[in-house]
Give the backbone structure.
Amino acid sequence: MKKTFCVAIDGPSGSGKSTVAKGVASALGFFHIDSGAIYRSLAWWMERQTESLPNLDCFTYHIVEKEGKFFHFIGDIDVTVEIRAPYISQRSSEIARYSQVRKRVNELQREIAIGRSVVIEGRDIGSVVFPNAQIKIFLTADIDERARRRFEELKLKGSLNPLEEVKNDLIERDERDRTREDAPLIQSKDAVAIDTTNMTVGEVIEKIVTLAKIERAPRFWKLLVGEQRSGAQTLYKIVVFVTYLIYRALYRFEIEGLENYPEGAAIIAPNHSSFLDPPAMGVACPHEVHCLAKAYLFKNRILGWALPRINTHPVMGDGSDLGVLKKIAEFLHQGKQVIIFPEGSRSKDNQVAPLKRGIALLASMAKCKVVPVKITGAYEAWPRGKKFPKLWGKIRVTFGKPLDWKDYEIRSPNKKEMQILFTKDLEESIKNLGVKEVFR
Ligand code: DC
């Protein structure tokens, strides 16, 4: 199936969503879905039903695209114009409070989006309907500006409603959309907020189209220009870039579960079975990361110069001494992300070995998240005991849902007991990731 792309644009009424979403869809050649229009169509339909609780499965809705314009149909009735009436604005916001209504509208949106790249606008698209959208935007604008825009729009359609009334309607609707229990209007954490108060429509469209183009660009390009690595040293960026190209060419390198990847201080905890693991992790992590390497490697002149420049820090012995723990804790306190292989050393048989407790100790010291990661295919390409790697294979890195020390801390005051449980859960999570993998 062809790879599809989703741009989710959320925001309150009058923030410019519709105009912007249409512009972005047309610039990218994507299909435009206006979820508000579906709520409006449903409100229009419910007004015409005799039962007070009609069967929502009987509500059919589809979009017809004609010469770049979108028309909204219920059965064979074109309701495009009627659903913009002010009474439908209020009714749609009222019915949107009900979970059954939201469920039905969500189903319709997901059906329409199947197999196509879309720009979808609404209130809960990035947070509920398409939480995996590649681009999430949250548009805002101050209330007077939003009221002015809606007033101009209605005036063009022949409405005589005074500005003050339009503004009050918006305030009332905002309040209802923000405070309803099911899927209220909120900015999801990973959405990019754009305040459109002093921006032209063209500027907003351009900004979103640029974000989408960067996101759709080949990964190697993002690795070099992506914002996340902008603070990194040049050598770090070059090494990540070259490693990516090599891994892609030789090992058909793939990364999964990036939606689980956290912001801020975190320990990234992969299984370890091959020398190919550390570079794979450096490339897979979307943010700049730090890692540790045995101190003797730093005695070599070239490595001694290069390793610190690619965020690799020396550790003595097996890495369980206090000095190392302190160093990592310091990184975490600075909000940095550190890769630690919690098994301690490379597995001899590709099975995940019992994890060392140091990682739970660190998580409890820094009160941070730990991301379980499974690397598959690296052992097949270069297992322990072999002098050279095979130059062909398939390596995949899968990020799992992070474990948060804070969740364990509140479960019991017995820190040691919680560290044991944390370690056990982390081990289980790593084991269960990417198990369906088949290697060819
Ligand atoms: O975007 P709009 O003004 O056309 O939306 C009409 C109403 O539909 C809005 O007041 C709340 C509801 N709505 C919603 O609850 N969730 C969405 N994703 C889109 C619209």
User: Anything to note?
Assistant: The pocket of 2'-deoxycytidine-5'-monophosphate is lined by residues 13, 35-36, 39-40, 92-93, 96, 122-125, 173, 177 (CB under 6 Å). Residues 6-215 form a domain with the Rossmann fold fold (CATH 3.40.50.300). The chain has two domains: 6-215, 218-432.
